[in-house]
Specification:
alpha/beta; 2,3-Dihydroxybiphenyl 1,2-Dioxygenase, domain 1; globular
Length: about 120
């Protein structure tokens, strides 16, 4: 099952302090708007999102239809099909993807309560 590009979305207290810290580790701002309290940062193929005041805890994120450069890929499994497969395997949904095509998202949690967001932008 291909879930798409992977990143970690971090709930940060101070986006500027976090940005400066991750820049020391070799990350650079790739996308986002710091004035809106969110940035996507990259170091090679590693991607992290910094989000101030948007959610309570860190989230594992997958983006069906995107590669690690946030570029659309030609072939991918639609989020609604991924959701159907996971539900058939007994995975409980926190939230579900709606609609019949296009952008959508769903959320699940692993056994330790770590939130996983599957977020399709295409």
């Amino acid at each position: 099952m291909q879930l798409g590009a992977f990143s970690v979305s971090l709930a940060v207290k101070d986006i500027e302090a976090s940005k400066q810290f991750y820049e020391k580790l070799g990350f650079a701002a790739f996308f986002g708007d710091q004035s809106q309290n969110w940035l996507i940062m990259k170091n090679g193929d590693c991607v992290i999102g910094l989000f101030q005041g948007m959610f309570d805890k860190n989230i594992l994120t997958f983006n069906p239809g995107w590669n690690s450069e946030a570029q659309q890929i030609a072939e991918f499994t639609d989020i609604r099909e991924l959701q159907r497969r996971l539900k058939a395997r007994g995975v409980t949904m926190i939230s579900e993807a709606e609609g019949s095509s296009g952008p959508a998202s769903f959320m699940i949690a692993d056994p330790d309560g770590n939130t996983i967001l599957v977020d399709q932008h295409v």
